[in-house]
TrEMBL record:
One Pfam match: STAS_2
InterPro entries attached to this UniProt entry: MlaB-like_STAS, STAS_dom, STAS_dom_sf
The protein's name in its UniProt record: STAS domain-containing protein
Residue ranges constituting the STAS domain according to the UniProt record: 1-51
Length: 92
């Protein structure tokens, strides 16, 4: 399971990318856990879009149903309508 960090921000972007790349290299199926995300900025949302796009491009299986309200709220606030990301949003 790949656990997203508590802060998905510009200050954490490089470390996030490094950890993600190491994890992806060792796993064919990526289960994303967003339960600890408490803070996300525009760069964090862009990182999520880039992450999903990258995982799809290298044919990784992705399991994620976004549960972190902060992620959904940020995407809405930013006016981002990106199907590649929003398909993982929990639409209960």
């Amino acid at each position: 399971m790949f656990k997203l960090p508590a802060e998905l921000t510009i200050a954490k972007a490089e470390a996030f990318k490094q950890i993600l790349m190491e994890y992806v290299a060792d796993h064919d199926s990526i289960v994303i856990d967003d339960s600890e995300v408490e803070k996300i900025d525009t760069i964090g949302v862009q990182l999520l879009i880039a992450m999903i796009t990258y995982l799809i491009s290298i044919n990784k299986n992705i399991e994620w149903q976004c549960k972190a309200e902060i992620i959904k709220e940020s995407v809405i606030k930013l006016g981002i309508n990106e199907p590649i990301l929003s398909q993982y949003f929990d639409n209960e």
